[in-house]
Each structure stands twice: as structure tokens, then as C-alpha cells.
TrEMBL record, chains A, D:
It comes from the Bacteria. This is Iron(III) transport system ATP-binding protein. One of its GO terms (biological process) is quaternary ammonium group transport. InterPro entries: AAA+_ATPase (IPR003593), ABC_SmlMolc_Importer (IPR050093), ABC_transporter-like_ATP-bd (IPR003439), ABC_transporter-like_CS (IPR017871), Mo/tungstate-bd_C_term_dom (IPR008995), P-loop_NTPase (IPR027417). Residues 10-250 form the ABC transporter domain. SMART domains: AAA. Pfam families: ABC_tran (PF00005). One of its GO terms (molecular function) is ATP binding. The keyword Transport applies. Keywords: ATP-binding, Cell membrane, Membrane, Nucleotide-binding, Transport.
TrEMBL record, chain C:
The keyword Cytoplasm does not apply. One of its GO terms (biological process) is transmembrane transport. It comes from Pseudoduganella namucuonensis. CDD domains: TM_PBP2 (cd06261). This is Iron(III) transport system permease protein. InterPro entries: MetI-like (IPR000515), MetI-like_sf (IPR035906). Gene3D superfamilies: MetI-like. Residues 71-278, 366-585 form the ABC transmembrane type-1 domain. Belongs to the binding-protein-dependent transport system permease family. GO terms for cellular component: plasma membrane.
């Protein structure tokens, strides 16, 4: 199957949505625009309460926005100005819930077959198609089970099978992995990515875990407080964040209490607790400059180094594949975390903060 | 087949009734007592089904006037012990004028305007607990009763109808007020005994039988007698000085669907055959003098004398002394004397 | 691969099934109420030509000291009943659902007895067992020399009414408790709270919404208590509103509908603010009590040293509310007579049962009652489900209005509600007939010739009885079903819509199958209620459609207390057997 | 505060527990023994359904075991042989539920104060103590709020405050972090560890996330199928697992289809798809040898290397701070994951598997 990058399978334009009305109205989406191309996997990322689920539900037709438009392929399914709203059941989308929402009174087969039955497909065609999808998802032998007789990971696959079976143009997933065990989750995300790509689906997936978003998607939309904060491919989101919010959200960071001494284009000189450091300006620059660096960019050195500050080691936490070491200045004003392959001995260290990774917003 | 002695053209009514094939009766007499009547009627006139609706007397009234006003299906014959309500319906024009074939055999007071007919002859009795009351103590007149219940032993142990709730009770009591010159003393005696009032005969009988109450006043004799047959605790006295008589009133609905069947039923109830069933099987006391046996007017009159029998007339006059103002005044007085707590 | 298309497309259609359900419900509720309301402002029955519009009825009842007394008593009774039934029902639910109370298994069905035994029969049972010469009283007298209680006092009536309404509260409270995760209770225990403290500080406050609802409902039922007061209140002349209505019938010689209607309107007026208070309570309570359907494990809470105390209290309740009156009834059904100085062994008899078997209408009554309970109950549950579904997850004005409305019919005493239904069935066809005739068109004539007779004939069918029962118990039944509906996760329905199911399909394929057990439970409850109901149906029953409730009243009035006892005994036994079978086959009392 | 390592605050000995009874009995705990020393933080780790929660609840008195003993300090709270069981409310433990189980009808203050009220403390003392605890947890200003008015992280702290306030000797936590956002969770675990150590508490914490267990605890108990599989400090659990189960559970692993060629003490020679490799034997050795290596121990080299196999690169997943690269042999028989600081170009690579990290079980 060829992936046609040019067609938009889903277009959302300037969507506004609020809960309640009149005086108690509570705006949740405040003008969200986005699109999803054919064959693309887009992750909708954002902190809890930022409106991710709401946006997904609006696309699915389960919430009524106030303004804006939503198109699925060529079809307009919502138009705020014309007060037109196509009911959810006619939008023909695939939807996977965080809780899976499998119907407990139906077998796995019936759960998956239901969408086809509604489409008036013949019984033997249904059987063939359902078994094909179940096999693709490695569930072929479980068709006669009931949801409660299956493990979480299997239930999740049934939920996906149910959403896929009638070949919807777009499949929407709301935190599909968050109900899984930490260990299972890692496997599942690789599986999910592989499956979506293999079947050539267009997928919009909600998550609040940036690691998951980066691992699974072609493009990330970062939602903050009802608006798209930034979008782009995982690498650009991680390495060239445009706002402090994006920078802080996308990785593990150290925030430094610093004073800006001098600005010169993107080159900034700052002062951290007496130490003079070189840094890079990012974003538009706010009233109060914020200085931060990713934890993994901090290099620990026992000897004096360039563009570094000296701090005593407080404690090291074992993470298995590496150690996370916490450094704290005597007065407690500066906290710095860094990774180390080995456990560090107590003492003072030079923490090198490469100028191009030390960002000033 | 027309019963013997009926006019020749009676057969026409029978034929028409057979064609109607059905008769709807609303009654306040319980179906156990009505059953033998219906059975016998069906034997006499096969082919006419009697649909008997058993209700209490207020329900009979409510249902009948509502249905009559709405113009839908309703009763062909209405038969109830609430004489006042029956007379109200009859005099308000709901009763059809029909002169029964049996009229010559019935007492004059039991008929009104060829519309309403009394069918039974039920005395108001004094009922007492035989186990707990000495034979010597049993009162036989109203005066003895009034004297007896003022003894301390009878405090809280005398019962009668709650005349605010029971139509029959109210009617008996107002009749007492008219018939009994020393009614005020009687009322006071009730007050002294702190009379326990009940809204139905059943509760009264049960409580007298159990000994919770010792003696009951103005209990409908027909029910008391039936009960006394199986319950050795119950004793029944018909006061010798005078005994009030209630008669269940029947009339034919003016808008009856099954007019002929209704006429047959009316005549049957008043006939000797029907009255015999009423007396011997329903135990409701036959009103006809030519029916003999235990529960008949003949027997009753023999027991207490013709002059001491005081029937409530089947006549709109009952409405006069039961009119709203008089009612309220009477109730007020009753509550202040007998009902004082 | 080709996307599979759905049949049909287009805009969101009008939700006409909901429209129909809401309209029919509104008609069923408000037509009788309207008649009562209208009647209260007239001077004579509304169908009489001489009626005049006015406030005479209100003037009369407000002047009547009896009304004031009945009203005061009614208020005391309803308040006292609520104060007894709500805490006890809540505590009972806690004990039964959450703790390791001994004997929970056999107590659960016993709790239902007061729901299906007619209060009149209960009252009679109390008279036989604990009346002044009742056999327990006689024992007590032999032991103590006096009878330590007076069953006829108003206090006793309030207590008995309260205790017999405990199960109503229990049902709501227990289903709320079941849907409440037990983790909050365990948290309290670990913090050091004894079971009693857990109940008082955590469990009951958290099911406040359910308790508030049940409280308002039993308060309404408190105004409606009739049979019990009729039997126990007469001797000392205690008057409450339904018995006052009874009195009004007689007060002016002929039944005075305008006065009865005025009383009913007053009742509705009193209860309306109550419904509002309850709504408001619920709103503020719901705000912070989020009932999580977390079916996490819950091990029965060990009561420890409280165990036998709790069992003792529960047993005392059972003894007083169920065992005492029932033994009274059973005893009465096997003796010829009873009372002071009677040796019961001498008067034992089976005659009453023989009498009943000999009376075909009594047998028919039993059959009819079971039928109206089983089939009518099933149909009622179907209708309640339709209404509950019409309100399900649609938090709009219609739902709110309906939510208020369902409680109102219960505020009207059954006696009058029954009459109002008779009027509806009688006069609505007449009025429609008039309208059709007046319209003078072909359709009008056709309708008046074909539809009207059909409408008229409805009244004499059992359908009329069923409808009246169903409307009067709407609030009770609906709540049972909406509780079940609330437990269906919204995502399960949304998932069906997302795969392309229309509203009807979602309901049929997902929602209803999921509340299967809730529906069965509701059916059982409605069966029990219909089993004992009578006053509402009195005017709608005709020969062939007798039900036990009405027959008991009629037997009672005719003085056959022995048959009342025997018939009740048969009825209770049959229901108990049926109940046992239902429970055995997995019908749950609460979901 | 000094930490006395010698006293056991909690001792569980040979605990057996089953759900149901008779024929349907389902044994959950099959002889668990453990202890918790004063001032120690122990993590109870294990896959879903292994009985972690059950063990915790048995200690708290919320489940009734069948056999064994439980002592809290000097007090015996459960003794299976004597059928003695102290009710939960008398055990005086602190318990934090996964769902927090805050009382929604009480304010934060009342939630925390409840345990003290039950202990009949005076109102002013209660106020003082509660405010002190709330302040310690950074909730001082939220005392008057209701739980529903707070964020997940704040609710979690209230749950902890509620369990701490009456100074229980042991505090039990059931997956206290699993309801939090991915980002919040990382902060919370550092905070929690710091708090427990600062207050000198003894804590038993359930988790199914090995990263969390390692980061937070002094000692890990790995539960598997109702039994303790292995216990030890995080480092020993991660670096010297005794069983295959422990090894697989404690990290991200590559499992290799290999044949053992020769065993010589702990030194093993294996054959992977034709390549001969040196490896180390671990554990007791089972019937079917399993060969595995941690993902982070695989070193990627573009040139031939020692003890390495050559595999073509399939795909690289961006993780933000690093890339996870998947190598797959042509026939699909071998899957190997490795981390890389940079995105690798397509092609074939030599994957070096250090002999001491390549474990054979
Ligand atoms: N039915 C509702 N009524 C009112 N407010 C709501 C409703 N549902 C959600 N909200 C609010 O809308 C906001 C956005 O909710 P939403 O569920 O879209 O967030 P989210 O980004 O999906 O968060 P999470 O990661 O926690 O799932 C939240 O502040 C939430 O409290
Ligand atoms: N009430 C119960 N009745 C029967 N079995 C139960 C009950 N509660 C739990 N179980 C079973 O006991 C086993 C252990 O459950 P437990 O909750 O202790 O696991 P866990 O290790 O805490 O898992 P998780 O990580 O999913 O919380 C599971 O297989 C579970 O299905
Ligand atoms: Fe009733
Ligand atoms: Mg969400
Ligand atoms: Mg668990």
C-alpha cells in the first residue's frame, strides 16, 4: 500500500468547545486547528486537563463544539457556523478508548463483528473479515472468549480490532496504552506503531506521556490549555522547542536560577550563582528569563571543565541501566540532576552545561 | 318461563331480557352473600349472565354517578345499604320508574315512587362477648345498655361505628336520636365509657370476639348473626324497647342498557323465591312478611313486637334529616358528648 | 482497502421515540393530576352542570378542625416515619452489604416482607399479636401484670409505620452502597475507626444522595399511610389525611370530590418544595461525592465484638416488624376465634382455608394478583425502562422536568388517585368524542366511531388497573432502573456509536443487555408492590379482574376477618415461595 | 533521626492466603516471608496478579490469611495456628491506597484529622498536628479544599498525610504513583523517597514498575505467583538476578535464540545463528537454556568487534534523550534492540555483547 502524503484524512479548523453554557461556560478548546494526512500517525500530547480527550471526542462526534469545522476526508462532519453536526454513528471512524470499553456481554468475535453487522454485511463475510483482523492482531484463537477472560494487553488488541474492522479512514486512540503494565506498555507501543504502519492507517493518538508520543508518532501536536502549543516531528519537538512549555514538557529538565548578563543574538551570557556561563536563546523570550537544560545533556566531571558549575553531590538513585545523581548547592538554591553510568562517590563535581544545550527562554 | 302469578305479558320482558343476555349489578353486599342469589336467579332465567360488582357503598355511589355523567357503560341495577346515597341517586333522577309486580306484597314504607325498593330487613343489634359478659349483665333495652356501659369495667371496652366514617352508623345514630327520647343520656354514657369507634363491622366483631371490647352497639344484625353461628363468643341482642331496621335499597338505572334483565332482577329480589334466598342463604333478613324462617322480618317482628320495629323509610325524607347542615350539627354534638376524649 | 460504508446518512434526526415516551408519560402523570386540580376549585363534581368555580373547597377544609388535625398528624407521621426509616434503612444496608453479620443470607428475603404484605393486614396482625388482648400482650400481662405497650397510640402507629418502611430505604441504600468502592471504608478502618464509626463517618455520608431520595420517597409514603391507620388508629380516633379523605366522603352526606381534591392539592403543594429541597440536596451532594464504580474487592468487614449487638438489633427489628405481625396473621387464620380467656388449642380449625377454596372468586383473585404482579410488573418495568432511557445521559430541561414529575403522583393518596384515573378513562373519551364530532370532518366522524369505543372499553380491562398502578409507583420503579443505568459506563455506549450504531441500536444491543440483572431486580420489586396495592385500583376493577388487595378490603368490611387472615396467609406463602425461587435463580435484589 | 537497622518493624512469616474455600479455593499467597526494618523502604515488586496487593492488605488486616504469622513491632497481629486476627482498626498502620480513597465529603483537613479524632486527641492538638503534616507535604494552604477540587498529585499527598498523621510505625503504600501523569510521577517518586527518609518512616510500597521500585527503595522484594522470587537491594536485583524471571522482570532485555555449545563453570560458549559467543552462566540452570542481555549493554559498532554478531538495522525509534534501534536478522529469527545516542543510518552493524553481561539461565 502506498502512502499518499498529500491528502488530508482529517482536518480540524479553529475549533472552539466549552462545557456548560451561559455564565458557567468553561472553555476547553480555544481554537484548535490541525490535520492528519493519509497514512500518518499523529500524537496528541499534553498535560492532564489540556483538552486532548475533548478534542478527540469532538472529532468522533461525541461532544458538540461551539465553533469551527471538522472534515473527514472530503466530508464536512461539523460546521459551527451552519450549526451542522453529523452524529457520531455516521462519521465512520474507528475509536479506541482508554478503558477499552469492550462490551462485557459479547464475545471477542461479537465485539469485533458488531460494526460489520451494523453495516449489513453477510454473516459469512463477517466471519471471514473478523477472523482475518483477529489473526492480524494475534487473537485468532481467542475469538470465543469474553473480555473478562483476557489479560489487559489482549483486551487492548480487541479494542483495536473492533475499531479497525470496517476499515475506517481514520482511527482515533485515547491513551490506548495507559492501562497496561509498565513492561507490557513498551512492547505494546512497538506493536501498535508497527501495526498502524503495516495497515497504512491514519491514526490520531492521545497520550500524556512524551516518551510514548515520540516513540509512536510521525508528528506530535502539543496541546496546552486548549490550544496547540507547538507541532512537529518528535525530533524537532524535543531538540528545538519554541516555548518554555514545550521544552519543559518534552523531556526531563534542570531549571537553573540564573541572571541574564548579556544577550547577543542567540548567544546569551548568564550568571548562575556567581559562575558565568554561555547559553543559547530559544523562543521569543519572555519577561522573566528561564534557563534550562535536559538532564541527559549535563556532563559530570571530577575536574574543572569548560562552561561548568561546581556542585556537591547529594545522592544517587539507581535506575538500573544508569544512575540519576542529584547535586545541590550548599544553600539549596541550585538543584541539578545528571545521569551517570556508575554510582558516583560523595564529593564535589564539575557539571558541564554545553552552551548549545543550555537554553534561555 | 314467567313465574306463577305474574301477568301474561311478563313473558315479553323475559324474552327481551334473554336477548340482552346480561345484567350488570353494582352492589355493596359482599359477594359471599350475593352468590346464592345470583345462582338462583341464573337457574330461574338461564341465559342471563349476572355481572356483580362488589364495592363498598361509597364506591358504588362514586362510580355510578361518574359513569352516568360520562355516558359510558354503567350498572343496570344499583343495590346498596347506604340508604341515603341510594335515595339521593333515585331522587336525582337516576332511577327508572318501574312498578314491580311484587309491590302488593311489600310494606309501604319500603318503596318510593315506583323507583326505589327496600329489599332487606336488617336490625341494628347489640353484640357482646359471651365469655366475658355474664348472662345477667346482658342489656335488653337501650336504657339498660346506657346504664351498663357506665360501669368502670366497660371503660374503653364499648364499641360502635365511627359515625363520621360509616354511613350506616351515622344513619342508625340519627334514627336513634329521633326514636329514643333519652338519646342524650345514651350519648353521655358513650362519653363515660370512652367509646371506641370503628369504621367497619368486621373490626367491631373481631374486637368483641377477642374480648378487646366487651360490647358493641348498633352492629348490623345480619353480619352479627352470621358470625355468631361460627363464633361461640358472640352474643346478639335485639333491643326490646325498639330496634332500628335498615333495608338495602335497589333501583334500576334510568339509562340501563339491559332494562329488561334489570326488571327481572328487581322482581326476582322482591319475589318470595328471591326473598327466601336472601333470608336463608344470604342471611340478610327477608323484608316480605310471607317468608318465614330465622332471618326474616316475620320472625323479627314476632320476637320484639310490631310496634318496636322501627324501619328507616325508603324515602327521600332520609335526605332531609341527613342534609349537610343537620349532619354537621349532629356530628359536632356527638363528638362533644360521646366522642370526648 | 475500501472503507465499508454505513447504510443511510445525513443529519441528526429528530429523536421521536424519546418524544413519544416523554409525551405519554407527561399525559399519564398530568391528566389525572389536572383533573384533581381542576376539581378542587369547583363547588360540585366537575361533571355536574351545577358546578361553580371558586375557593369554597379550600375555605371549608381550612375551617375544618379535623383537617388541621389530620394535617398535623400526617406531618408528624411522615416526619417520624422518615426519621425512623432512613437511619435504620441506611444502617441495615451497611450491615447487610458490608459486614460479616451472621445470617445475612436468610435475612435478605425476609426484609422484603413489609413491602408486599398489605399494611392493613400488617395492622391486623399487630392487633392480633400485640393488641390489648393479643397473645403476646396476654403473655406479657401474665408475666408483668400489665401490658407494657399500647398499640393504638399514635406513637405506636408512627413507630410501626417507620419500621415497616425500613425496607424501602434499605433497597436504595444498599444499591448505592454496592456501587460505592469499599476502599474509602477500608481507609477509615486502617485509620482506626471501628465498624460503627466507619458507618457513621464514611459510608452513610457518602450515600447521602440515595438516602435523600429514599427519605423524600418514604416521606411521601408517610402521607399516604392508610391501611395501618385505618386498623390501628380508629379505636383512639387518630386521623391522618387519607383517613380524613375517607371521612370527608361521609361528612356532607354525599362524597364531596371538591373537598377531597382540595386536600390532595394541599398535599401536592406540601410535597413540591420537598422535592425541590431534595433536588438541591442531591445537587450539592453530588458535587463532591463521586461514586466510583470501582468493583474492587471488598471483604466483608468483620464486626468483631459489635457482631452480636448488631445482630441483636437487627433481630429485634425482624421480631417486631415481621415475626410478630405475621405470627398474628398465621394464628388468626387457624383459629375460629381468639382473645382473652380463649385456649387456642381448643379452637384450631382449617375451616377458613376450606371456605377460601370453596369461593371461586377468591381463587381467581389470587391468580389475577399473581398475573398483574408478574405480567403487569414486567410491562411496568418495560415502561419505566423506556422513561429512564429517555432521561438517560440527557441532562436537559425535559429530563429535569420529568425527574420532578415522577414523584408527584405518589403525593396523591391512592384512594383519590384511583378515582382520578376512573375519571380520566371515563371523560377523556367523551371529550375527545365531542371534539371529533364538532370537527365535523370525515376523519373526525371515523375517529369518533372507531377510536372512541376502543378508548371507552379500556376502562373495564385490567389494563386500566395496570396503568393506574404503574403511574402511582412510577417514582419508585424508575429509580430502581435509573440506578442500574447509571452503572453502565458511558464509553460502552459511545463505543457502539463510534462503530456506527444508531441510538436505538445502542440501546438494544448494548445498554439493555448490560442492565439485564438490574431489570430483573426491578421486576421483582415492582411485582411485590403490585402484589399488595389496592386502593388505586378500587374504581377500575370489575368482576373477573379482582385482585387480592381489593378482596381483602371487601372481606374486611364484611366482617370476615378470619378469611382475611387465611387469604393473607396463602398470599404471603405464595409470594415467599416465588421469591425464594426467584432469588435461587439468581435474580438480585439490588444491582 | 537515627536509623536503627536491627529492629524489625514488620515481620511476615510463611503467610498463606487463598480466596474462596473448599473446592474453589484459589491460593494467592503460598508461603511469603519477609521483614521490614526500622527506617527502611521496601518495594514489593511483581507482575500484575502476583499477589502484591493481597499481601499488603493481609498485613493491614483487610484480608484474612489461612496460615502463617504477622508481627508489627513486638505485637503479633495475626497467627494462623491460633486463629488469632487483630482487626484492622487496632493495628495502627498507615495505608495509602492506589485510588487514594480520600473521603469526598470531608475537607482535606478533616480527611487528615480523622485518624487523630479517633484517637481522642484534643481539638487544638489535632489542628496543630494536622497543619504541621500538611505543611511538611506542601499542602498547608489547601486545608479547606475538598478532594475533588485538587489535582491528582495533590490528592496523593493528602492520602499520604492521612496515613502519616498519627505516626504509625509502618506505612503501607499500594502503587501510590500509578494514578499520576508520567511527568508528575517522576517528581513524585523523588519527593516520596525524600519524605520517607526525612521522617524516618518504615515503608512497604507496592509497585509493578521496576524503575519506580529501584528509584525509591532500599530493598526490593520480587513477588512471583504468590512467592518471593528474589530479594535484595536494587543493584543486586538488577545486576545479579538469580532467576530468569528476575532478570527479565528487572530491565529491558534482548532474548537470543542460542544453542549452548560448552559449559565450563560459569563460563559458557554459545552459538547464535552461526556466530560463536562467550557468555556467563547465571542461576541454577534450567532444562532449556535461555540467553539474554540488557538492551543498554549491547554496543553498536560499524566495524567488526569482539564477541559480536552482525545484524542489519530495521528501524530506529526516537526516545528524546536517545534512540532505540531495532536489528533484525534476514530470516527474522533474531531481534536485538540497542540504544544509540544518534540516529543510525541504514545498513548492517556489529552488535557487541560483552561476555559478562550476556547471561545464560
Ligand atoms: N463533562 C465535563 N463537564 C465539564 N468539564 C469537563 C467535562 N469533561 C472534561 N471537563 C474538563 O475539561 C478539561 C479537559 O478535559 P480532557 O478530558 O479533554 O483532558 P485531557 O487532556 O484528556 O486530560 P487527561 O490526560 O487527564 O485525560 C478538564 O479541565 C476537565 O476537567
Ligand atoms: N476477591 C478475590 N477473589 C478471588 N480472587 C481474587 C480476589 N482478589 C484478587 N484475586 C486474585 O488474586 C490474585 C492476586 O491479586 P493481587 O491484587 O494481589 O495482585 P497484584 O499483584 O496486586 O496485581 P496488580 O499489579 O494488578 O495490582 C489475582 O490473580 C487476582 O485475580
Ligand atoms: Fe395504597
Ligand atoms: Mg483524557
Ligand atoms: Mg494490586
Amino acid at each position: 500500500m502506498k502512502r499518499d502524503i498529500m491528502t488530508n484524512e482529517l482536518t480540524v479548523d479553529d475549533l472552539h468547545l466549552e462545557y456548560g453554557s451561559g455564565a458557567t461556560a468553561n472553555p476547553i478548546l480555544k481554537g484548535v486547528s490541525m490535520h492528519l494526512r493519509k497514512g500518518e500517525v499523529v500524537a496528541l500530547l499534553g498535560p492532564s486537563g489540556s483538552g486532548k480527550t475533548t478534542l478527540l471526542r469532538a472529532v468522533a462526534g461525541l461532544e458538540s463544539p461551539k465553533l469551527g469545522t471538522i472534515d473527514i476526508g472530503e466530508r464536512r462532519v461539523f460546521d459551527g457556523s451552519k450549526a451542522f453536526e453529523m452524529p457520531a454513528e455516521q462519521r465512520n471512524l474507528g475509536l479506541v478508548f482508554q478503558s477499552y470499553a469492550l462490551w462485557p456481554h459479547k464475545t471477542v468475535f461479537d465485539n469485533v463483528a458488531y460494526g460489520l453487522k451494523l453495516r449489513k454485511m453477510g454473516a459469512s463475510d463477517i466471519k471471514e473479515r473478523v477472523m482475518e483482523v483477529l489473526k492480524q492482531l494475534g487473537l485468532g484463537h481467542l475469538a470465543e472468549r469474553y473480555p473478562h477472560q483476557m489479560s489487559g494487553g489482549q483486551q487492548q488488541r480487541v479494542a483495536i480490532a473492533r475499531a479497525l474492522v470496517y476499515n475506517p479512514p481514520v482511527i482515533l486512540l485515547d491513551e490506548p496504552l495507559s492501562n497496561l503494565d509498565a513492561k507490557l506498555r513498551e512492547e505494546a507501543r512497538a506493536f501498535l506503531r508497527e501495526l498502524i504502519v503495516r495497515l497504512g492507517l491514519s491514526a490520531l493518538m492521545v497520550t500524556h506521556d512524551q516518551g510514548e508520543a515520540m516513540a509512536i508518532s510521525d508528528r506530535i501536536l502539543l496541546l496546552n490549555n486548549g490550544k496547540i502549543e507547538q507541532q512537529g516531528n518528535p525530533q524537532s519537538m524535543y531538540e528545538t522547542p519554541e516555548t518554555l512549555f514545550t521544552a519543559e514538557f518534552m523531556g526531563s529538565n534542570n531549571r537553573l536560577p540564573a541572571k541574564v548578563v548579556q544577550r547577543d543574538g542567540s548567544h546569551v551570557r548568564i550568571d548562575v550563582n556567581g559562575a558565568a556561563l554561555h547559553a543559547t536563546a530559544r523562543g521569543k523570550g519572555g519577561a522573566e528569563p528561564a534557563v534550562l537544560i535536559r538532564v541527559e545533556e549535563v556532563r559530570v566531571s571530577s575536574t574543572r571543565a569548560d562552561n561548568a558549575i561546581e556542585l556537591p553531590l547529594l545522592t544517587c538513585m539507581y535506575l538500573g541501566d544508569r544512575w540519576e545523581c542529584l547535586f545541590k548547592s550548599e544553600d539549596g538554591g541550585i538543584n541539578l540532576r545528571a545521569y551517570s553510568k556508575y554510582k558516583l562517590d560523595a564529593g564535589s563535581y564539575w557539571l558541564q552545561l554545553p552552551a548549545d544545550k543550555l537554553w534561555v527562554f | 318461563q314467567a313465574p306463577a302469578g305474574y301477568p301474561a305479558d311478563y313473558q315479553k320482558i323475559i324474552d327481551a331480557a334473554k336477548k340482552e343476555g346480561k345484567l350488570v349489578v353494582y352492589g355493596a353486599t359482599d359477594s359471599k352473600a350475593t352468590h346464592p342469589l345470583i345462582k338462583d336467579f341464573s337457574a330461574l332465567y338461564p341465559g342471563i349472565t349476572v355481572e356483580y360488582n362488589d364495592m363498598n357503598s361509597t364506591e358504588v355511589y362514586n362510580r355510578f354517578i361518574s359513569e352516568a355523567a360520562a355516558g359510558g357503560n354503567t350498572a343496570d341495577v344499583v343495590w346498596s345499604s347506604a340508604m341515603d346515597l341510594q335515595m339521593r341517586l333515585a331522587s336525582d333522577g337516576h332511577a327508572m320508574k318501574y312498578k314491580s309486580v311484587e309491590v302488593p306484597k311489600l310494606p309501604a314504607w319500603s318503596m318510593w315512587d315506583d323507583k326505589a325498593y327496600g329489599t332487606t330487613f336488617e336490625p341494628a343489634a347489640i353484640v357482646y362477648n359471651k365469655r366475658l359478659l355474664d348472662a345477667k349483665e346482658v342489656p335488653h333495652t337501650h336504657a339498660e345498655f346506657a346504664a351498663l356501659i357506665q360501669q368502670p369495667k366497660f371503660k374503653d371496652k364499648v364499641t360502635t361505628y365511627d359515625i363520621e366514617k360509616s354511613g350506616v352508623g351515622f344513619m342508625f345514630m340519627t334514627q336513634d336520636a329521633r326514636e329514643y327520647p333519652k338519646f342524650l343520656e345514651l350519648e353521655n354514657a358513650f362519653g363515660v365509657a370512652k367509646v371506641r369507634v370503628q369504621s367497619s363491622t368486621g373490626t367491631m366483631m373481631e374486637r368483641i370476639s377477642s374480648g378487646e371490647n366487651l360490647i358493641g352497639y348498633n352492629v348490623l344484625g345480619s353480619y352479627a348473626l352470621v358470625r355468631a353461628k361460627t363464633d361461640p363468643s358472640i352474643g346478639v341482642v335485639l333491643p326490646k324497647d325498639y330496634t332500628l331496621i335498615l333495608s338495602r335499597v335497589v333501583f334500576i338505572n334510568k339509562a340501563a342498557k339491559n332494562v329488561n334483565a334489570a326488571k327481572l332482577w328487581l322482581d326476582y329480589m322482591l319475589s318470595q323465591r328471591g326473598q327466601t334466598v336472601i333470608a336463608n342463604e344470604s342471611k340478610l333478613y327477608a323484608i316480605r312478611a310471607d317468608v318465614t324462617g330465622e332471618t326474616t322480618s316475620a320472625d323479627l317482628i314476632k320476637q320484639i313486637g310490631k310496634d318496636n320495629v322501627k324501619p328507616v323509610p325508603v324515602h327521600p325524607i332520609v335526605l332531609q334529616f341527613l342534609g349537610p347542615e343537620k349532619r354537621m350539627a349532629f356530628l359536632k354534638q356527638w363528638k362533644e358528648t360521646a366522642g370526648k376524649k | 482497502m475500501q472503507t465499508l460504508a454505513l447504510p443511510g446518512s445525513g443529519r441528526r434526526g429528530l429523536n421521536w421515540p424519546r418524544g413519544v415516551v416523554v409525551t405519554l408519560t407527561a399525559i399519564a402523570i398530568f391528566l389525572p393530576l389536572y383533573l384533581i386540580f381542576y376539581q378542587s376549585f369547583l363547588s360540585a363534581p366537575f361533571f355536574m352542570p351545577e358546578k361553580v368555580l371558586g375557593l369554597d373547597a379550600y375555605r371549608f377544609i381550612f375551617d375544618d378542625p379535623d383537617f388541621a388535625m389530620a394535617f398535623k398528624n400526617g406531618l408528624t407521621l411522615a416526619t417520624g416515619l422518615t426519621l425512623i426509616a432512613v437511619p435504620m434503612g441506611g444502617a441495615l444496608a451497611f450491615l447487610m452489604i458490608r459486614t460479616d453479620l451472621p445470617g445475612r443470607g436468610w435475612i435478605a428475603p425476609m426484609l422484603l416482607v413489609p413491602i408486599f404484605v398489605s399494611p392493613m393486614v400488617m395492622g391486623f396482625g399487630y392487633v392480633v399479636s400485640m393488641g390489648p388482648v393479643g397473645f403476646y400482650s396476654t403473655w406479657a400481662k401474665d408475666l408483668l401484670g400489665f401490658v407494657p405497650w399500647n398499640i393504638y397510640s399514635f406513637t405506636s402507629i408512627v413507630i410501626i409505620a417507620g419500621l415497616t418502611h425500613v425496607p424501602h430505604v434499605y433497597l436504595y441504600a444498599s444499591s448505592a452502597l454496592k456501587s460505592l468502592g469499599s476502599d474509602v471504608e477500608e481507609a477509615a478502618r486502617v485509620a482506626g475507626a471501628s465498624p460503627l464509626q466507619v458507618m457513621l463517618n464514611v459510608s452513610l455520608p457518602m450515600i447521602m444522595p440515595a438516602l435523600a431520595y429514599a427519605g423524600v420517597l418514604v416521606f411521601f409514603l408517610g402521607f399516604e399511610v392508610f391501611g395501618l391507620v385505618l386498623v390501628l388508629g380508629d379505636p383512639e380516633g387518630h386521623l391522618v389525611l387519607p383517613t380524613y379523605l375517607y371521612k370527608l366522603t361521609n361528612k356532607l352526606g354525599t362524597p364531596s370530590y371538591h373537598l377531597m381534591a382540595a386536600v390532595a392539592v394541599c398535599l401536592v403543594m406540601v410535597t413540591l418544595p420537598l422535592v425541590m429541597i431534595q433536588r438541591w440536596l442531591l445537587k450539592s451532594a453530588n458535587k463532591y461525592v463521586s461514586i466510583k464504580g470501582k468493583g474492587a474487592r471488598s471483604k466483608a468487614m468483620p464486626l468483631g465484638r459489635w457482631k452480636w449487638l448488631a445482630f441483636g438489633v437487627l433481630f429485634a427489628w425482624l421480631l417486631f416488624t415481621i415475626i410478630m405481625p405475621l405470627t398474628g396473621i398465621v394464628l388468626r387464620s387457624f383459629v375460629q376465634y381468639w382473645g382473652e380467656g380463649v385456649n387456642l388449642a381448643d379452637v384450631l380449625t382449617l375451616q377458613h382455608f376450606r371456605d377460601i377454596l370453596a369461593e371461586p372468586s377468591l381463587i381467581r383473585g389470587i391468580v389475577n394478583t399473581v398475573l398483574i404482579g408478574v405480567i403487569g410488573g414486567g410491562l411496568a418495568v418495560a415502561c419505566y425502562s423506556a422513561i429512564a432511557l429517555a432521561m438517560h445521559r440527557k441532562p436537559d430541561g425535559i429530563t429535569r422536568a420529568l425527574d420532578y414529575s415522577v414523584l408527584v403522583p405518589r403525593a396523591v393518596p391512592g384512594l383519590l388517585a384511583g378515582l382520578a384515573f376512573l375519571w380520566v378513562f371515563l371523560f377523556v373519551p367523551s371529550w375527545l368524542d365531542g371534539m371529533f364530532k364538532a370537527s365535523d370532518s370525515g376523519v373526525g366522524t371515523w375517529l369518533s366511531e372507531h377510536l372512541i369505543p376502543a378508548l371507552r372499553s379500556i376502562r373495564s380491562t385490567i389494563f386500566a388497573v395496570w396503568l393506574a398502578y404503574s403511574v402511582v409507583w412510577l417514582a419508585y420503579g424508575m429509580r430502581l432502573i435509573s440506578t442500574a443505568l447509571l452503572q453502565v459506563g458511558p464509553e460502552l455506549e459511545e463505543a457502539a456509536r463510534a462503530v456506527g450504531a444508531k441510538r436505538g441500536q445502542v440501546t438494544r444491543d448494548v445498554t439493555l443487555p448490560l442492565i439485564k440483572y438490574g431489570l430483573l431486580g426491578a421486576w421483582l420489586m415492582v411485582f411485590l408492590i403490585f402484589e399488595r396495592e389496592y386502593s388505586t385500583g378500587v374504581y377500575l376493577l370489575s368482576p373477573g379482574t379482582e385482585v387480592i388487595g381489593a378482596m381483602l378490603v371487601s372481606l374486611w368490611a364484611g366482617g370476615s376477618t378470619d378469611l382475611v387472615a387465611a387469604l393473607s396467609f396463602i398470599n404471603i406463602t405464595l409470594v415467599a415461595i416465588g421469591l425464594g425461587i426467584a432469588l435461587r435463580f439468581g435474580v438480585k435484589l439490588h444491582n
